[in-house]
User: Fold this.
Amino acid sequence: DGGITQSPKYLFRKEGQNVTLSCEQNLNHDAMYWYRQDPGQGLRLIYYSQIVNDFQKGDIAEGYSVSREKKESFPLTVTSAQKNPTAFYLCASSPGGWDYEQYFGPGTRLTVT
Amino acid sequence: AQSVTQLGSHVSVSEGALVLLRCNYSSSVPPYLFWYVQYPNQGLQLLLKYTSAATLVKGINGFEAEFKKSETSFHLTKPSAHMSDAAEYFCAVSEYGNKLVFGAGTILRVKS
Assistant:
């Protein structure tokens, strides 16, 4: 079955530690996205990549980093510089530009204490 | 700049009643409009998408939405609510070439 996988489902870290969230897709999509979801705020774009080896900052990129070395993979690192990292993180992919449907993974819930 | 407003963070309906979730957008050009659904602790799933081919768009699970340019609205409806419709619903807008912007979401509760 084609789809998007995110791992792990739940992640716990101590304040001051960097953590990397995994996102893999086997849909052969060119574009991939990372969103952060907080209650009552909808989804906010962190980073996106429309092609391998290229990515752009979204609305809330500070304290996050990404890489896109392979078409199927788009890992997100939450660094210690992110002031409020506890959130639900969603990865998505699409065949092309912003007018295409985005396919979402199941999400990773990160808790930092 | 494009933006989305979803009226009502929580909507409660009885099973079998009409579901109406409201979405208003602002866009300087004809937009692409989407409705997504999210069940607890899961990702989002596309319900339907407007791409200017028809103003009334039919989606999955009996949902539909009507694009009204004069009202800048794209409200989501379903004639008869089912318990399984309880979830959070997101409206989203994209202008051509610009990123997707999501509304804050509406949590739908279905009472038996």
User: Anything to note?
Assistant: Chain A has no helices and eleven strands. Residues 3 and 16 of chain A are 33 Å apart (CA to CA). Chain A touches chain B through 23 residues (CB under 8 Å).
